[in-house]
Amino acid sequence: MKSKAAVRRIIEILKGIYPDALCSLQYEKDYELLFAVRLSAQCTDERVNKVTPALYARFPTLESFAEADPKEVGEYIHSCGFYNGKSRDIVACAQKLLTEHGGKVPGTMEELTALPGVGRKTANLILGDIFHQPAYVCDTHCIRITGRLGITDGSKDPLQVERQLRQALPPRESSNFCHRMVLFGRDTCTARSPQCLNCPLWAECDTGNPPRKTASK
Ligand code: SF4
């Protein structure tokens, strides 16, 4: 796997390409990010950003979500797919935030993953973006690219990848690194057609095509 120095070089190159490592989901309130991430499962951030303005206009408070009929929520999020499960989770999550957390999004992995529809990927994103803690958001882009680069051993298991990234990444860089993986995965290291010939990370990559002649130290 990659040396600390090689990981540092990768981080710096990515910083140069994507100075603003922002989450592409749009939100104003903390819980809106939580719900937007739930909606983004098996869906694009672009699609989520299209439905959330009307959803948040119809349900402008956490209380209004907690009292909502999941069927009506489902009508607003229909185009995001899996809308029955997502709407049930959002309403149940709003109720739990109000009854157990005083209407606030909690700031620990344990509390977050106890919320309906919230797994480690979502919890990590909330910890990074809302609480500015070290965060390892192991989505499909992050898992694929860190494996190709050789930062991880190529495991597809999100928990394994998260554990390896905790060892490999400087904690203060981790959240932004994961956001940059999403951007890089959309425009260069795509799932089906990685643009290796034009890739700024080619010299650091274990699986680029054509392969580099010497291993990075
Ligand atoms: Fe991805 Fe190819 Fe770049 Fe490696 S060289 S990071 S596989 S695009």
Bin the strand percentage. Answer: under 5%
Task: Report mean pLDDT, rounded to a whole number.
Answer: 96
Counting helices, strands and paired strands, the structural category is: mainly alpha
Total discrete domains: 2
Structural description of this entry:
- With 217 residues, the chain is an all-alpha fold.
- It folds into 2 domains: 4-20 and 137-216, Endonuclease Iii, domain 2, CATH 1.10.1670.10; 30-129, Endonuclease III, domain 1.
- Helix content is 57%, strand content 0%.
- The protein contains 11 helices and no strands.
- It has helices spanning 4-17, 30-39, 45-58, 62-66, 70-77, 83-101, 109-113, 120-129, 140-149, 158-168, 171-187.
- The chain is elongated, with a radius of gyration of 19 Å.
- The mean pLDDT is 96.
- The structure holds iron/sulfur cluster.
- Residues 145, 148-149, 188-189, 194-196, 199, 201-202, 205, 207-208 line the site of iron/sulfur cluster.
